[in-house]
Amino acid sequence: MALYPLPSVLVTDDDRDLRETLGVVLEARGYHPLLAADGEEAVRIVSQEEVHLVLVDLHLPRWSGIETVQRVREVHQEMPCIMMSAAWDEANLAAARSMDVFSMLSKPLGQSQVTDSIQRALSVAYDW
Fold first, then answer.
1. Domain span at residue 69?
2. pLDDT tens across 64-100, in order?
3. Nearest CA to 55 among 126, 107, 2?
């Protein structure tokens, strides 16, 4: 497992442009971004790397964001997770709440919206 001097944030989204843009934004804000295209890749990364927070899209191929969070938490039970979606409905909101997701962001995302939520989650989880 690699150790990073910066908090590492795993961005999981099947939209490559969004994933890479968030990676650039996070790196510029002092985070170590890790990128995954789907839930399986996210769980593999969480199993192999030091990850402090997972930012995950609700709608992913193969596994949903909810299922991805469940499987991430099988590896790291207390992993703070932030979920994002362009299409929240009551059932998805309830499922995210039941998973104790730190926050639920609506797309399109603003840079400060994402980074503020990440900073709050890291502060709560790790006192950073």
1. 8-122
2. 999 999 999 999 999 999 999 999 999 999 999 999 9
3. 107
3-state secondary structure at position 74: helix
Q: What is the DSSP string of 7-61?
A: -EEEEE-S-HHHHHHHHHHHHHTT-EEEEESSHHHHHHHHHHS--SEEEEESS-S
- Whether residue 107 lies inside any domain: the answer is yes
pLDDT digits (tens, 9 = 90+) for 27-36: 999 999 999 9
User: With the C-alpha atoms ordered 68, 100, 91, 119, is the resulting torsion angle positive or negative?
Assistant: negative
Our measurement of the distance from residue 90's CA atom to the centroid of its chain's CA atoms, rounded to an integer in Å, reads 20
| CA 72/CA 53 separation, integer angstroms | 10
> What is the token pair recorded at 33?
């971004």
CA distance linking residue 17 with residue 4, whole number of Å: 25
For the chain, how many structural domains are there in total? 1
